[in-house]
Specification:
With 483 residues, the chain is mainly β. The protein contains one helix and 30 strands. β28 and β29 form a beta hairpin.
Amino acid sequence: MKKLLILALILTSGILFAEMKDFSISGMNYAKYTRKSVEDSLKNYFEDDFSFNLKYNKLTFGMKFMAEYPKYDSFSPVEDLKSRDLEYKWGERFLEYKGEDLGIRGGTLEEVFSTGLVFRSYEDEDLNEDYRLEGARASYRKDDLKITAVYGVNDQDDNRNTAAGFDVDYIIRDFRLGANFVNYQNEVLPDTYADQDVYSARMNYSIDLFEFYGEYGHSNEYALTEQMVSISKARTGEAYNFSFSSFIKDAVITGEYLKYRKFNFRNGMQDVPQLYHSEEVLKEEETPGEDEESVMGEIDLPVTDQMNFLVNYSEGWTSDYDFRISDTYAEVRYELEESTITFEFSRVEKQEKPNSKWSVEYKPEAAYDFILFERSTTIKAANKYKKYKIFGTSYHSNEPSLQFDMSFDHFSLSTKGEYAFKNSDDLMDHGLYPSVEISADIIENTELVFFAGKQKGGKICRRGVCRYEKEFSGVKLELTTRF
């Protein structure tokens, strides 16, 4: 009740001052209802996020209120979703000043240094991950110089981790130079912390026909001794990232090399660059940055005014070559006056010697965008075929899918059918996943999304980390209002 009174007081004050010059109010409310078709389990879920910003001159104050009764988590097992998991909380609070040269923010913040190799504070709502900081950030920009400093705390998985660091970026003619340093204090036991110092230096050189980027990162991770009193150096990590791009007429040729050795963070405030087009990972049981080396090459070539061809190949391995991956992707796009035809093909092969596993996955895909009855329409067909071998036994699976999308004046329609089977003998024994989704602008600044059907779920990989989404069958209703 206290939080609701504070929220009402702030909004009332905003309305009273709304007539003031240079004062504005903006915000959004997002509500989602989910009903899952399951037996003997929790079926109904609801969540609501209300956020607003009050802006006056160079000052901005923002808050976000979240209610979960309970929230549906597609990555949690059904048995972990309890009806008593009711919660309401502040999801975001901040006060920010933005001047011409100086910027200061206190409260909830997201920030990234360069590519995120050393530091990235972020929130991924799709994967239900929150690595934002509660703290302060200051930035100063003058001509070609930019300096950013952050300090804050992140509570993740019942552990409290702190981060304090800075980033410097400076442009000298065709060169862009940068360096940063971050000290992490990671909670390993209640009120017991281990230090980690991470720094990097980078350089970007760019001219009309060529661009080069290089970054080196170094990490010193410390651990408590057995007596848990003194601190000694536990391990050292390194990271290398080099890339180039060459522009020859309308063609672009790109190459990149990455190498990581013990350069992973226990607190998750890191975005380790990956080269694989499919976003597949080399080694699922390890956090990214532990032991990996990879290369990538890409050619983006306009064949004619209407046709474009792209091919991308990447390969990665561990230092002992026990884990290897190769990723191939090709795309042909042909554009006509009122339609576009796209063909895509991907191939991912993985080998895990210690686990006696091998797999290769092929995915051809075709899409046709055109105008039907004066409506924008898309038809997309794909099939994911996978062969894999575990301890000498071979398996294979197919996952064909067909999707139809059409846009109207105030709403859009999307229908999709997916199928999954392992071999021709059990075509009727495996899953069919039909679904329909309708998005509509019901009134000004308000969008309603309705989904009904089944979703297959499966593995989702981002930033070198994979999670497994559970199969879903039921109804989802989302309402988003902006003001």
